[in-house]
Every structure is written in C-alpha cells, then in structure tokens.
Amino acid sequence: MNPDASLIKFNKAEFLSGKQIIALETAKDHYHADAAVVWCFDDRFSSALSVFLETKQIKRKDLVCIAGGLKTLASPDNENDRTFVLGQILASIALHHTPTVYLMVHSDCGKYGGLQTFGNDENAELRHYQLEAKRAVDFLTANLEASIKIEPVFVDFTGVWKI
Ligand SMILES: [Zn+2]
User: Fold this and answer.
1) pLDDT at position 4, please?
2) What are the tens digits of pLDDT across the range 58-74?
3) Is residue 93 part of a domain?
4) What residues does the ion ligand 1 have nearby, CB within 5 Å?
C-alpha cells in the first residue's frame, strides 16, 4: 500500500455516498480453486463453459477469459502476452492452490482468422488446434510444477472434447 495513503483523510462511506449501482452481499470466505480455466471470450461458447464446469464438477474456478483461449500460450502475438497469461495461471496456483489447468480452443475462433482460414475445412482446423494445444501444454509443462494437471479442450458448435 502507498505509505502516504494512511495519512490522507479519506472516508469510504462519504466517498461512495449516492453512488451505489447494486446492493449485494458477497461471501468473504477464501477458497481453493478446483481449476484455472483459460477460455476464449467468444460469447457463443459461454453456455459451453457453464456446462463444462458443471460436468467437471468445478465449483470454484479462476477464469482467464481472453481472445483465442490457449492461443496466447501456444502462438502469442508477442512474448509479453504469453508471460502475462502464465502469470495469471501462476497467481491462481499461488493464491488458490489450483491443481488443474484447462486450456480451451474453439472452432471458428476470430484470433485464428475463423474457420475460413482453414478453407472451411474442419479437419484442417482441428489438426492445427491439436498442434497448438501441444505447444500450449509444452510451454506450461516447462513452467509449472509437475504436479499441476494440464488439459486442453476443443469446443465447437456441437460440444466439448479432450484434445
Ligand atoms: Zn475465439
């Protein structure tokens, strides 16, 4: 904390007075996360995420929701982005003792240029994603404790699969 902060006279209630957007009680308990989940922010696959979490019985998750999902770990636009995402996963593990990391990639992802990049060939797309998933897993394996489980998943318009 900024050491000067305690010297400045500041009143929380006064500052927030008249500014409430919603009233909501949130449990203060700390938690252990069941998983860290790197998922593309494409909202078409938000329902798939909900069902996936339920199916895997993941009650507490640390969600790293970023364009491209595992792409930033496999073939990042730049190395800083990859370091940032790794940092998010390491923070999840350090703060919430997270044992498992799920890495998602999905069909028709804008970060890969969509399905059209693969000539609308779903076989070519999935083959590419299989290689990308391996790159992402290799990168994390080299940077995480061996006890952390890493599982890539593929999502398309009909379901979610291990890859
Ligand atoms: Zn996407």
Assistant:
1) 65
2) 999 999 999 999 999 99
3) yes
4) 40, 42, 109
**What's the CA-to-centroid distance between 143 and ligand 1, angstroms?**
24
What spacing in Å lies between the alpha carbon of 61 and ligand 1's midpoint?
20
Rounded CA gap, 143 and 145, in Å?
7
pLDDT tens digits along 119-133: 999 999 999 999 999
Q: How far is the CA of 159 from the centre of ligand 1 (A)?
A: 15
Distance 11 CA to ligand 1 centre (A): 43
Q: What is the pLDDT of residue 8?
A: 77
Q: What is the DSSP string of 104-119?
A: EEETT-GGGT-GGGGT
Of 87, 93, 105, 103, nearest to 145 by C-alpha is 93
CATH number at residue 152: 3.40.1050.10
